[in-house]
Prior knowledge:
By secondary structure, the chain is an alpha+beta fold.
Amino acid sequence: MASVVFLDDNIRVNAKKGKTIRQITNAVGASLNFGCRVGDCGSCECRVLNGVEHLSPLSIKEKNYFEMLNIEDSERRLMCQCSVESDDGEIVIKYGV
């Protein structure tokens, strides 16, 4: 299983491939905020400090959101759009940007 670290809450959890970050966050009680939950509002924008390669590719919603804001930063993701796509590795997430 992959390991997901929520730095702001000092939480480390093992996560199965296919689980969304939102599902993981809800299960462990992390304080990451989710507004619309569909990639429109940006309230769950985070920085992936390590392990972005273990997450699903950028969704169209994310691409549009970051393009609209003229942001070209491969570490920034919308957590409502991400899922774990690896059976191992570490994903380190810092809330906000």
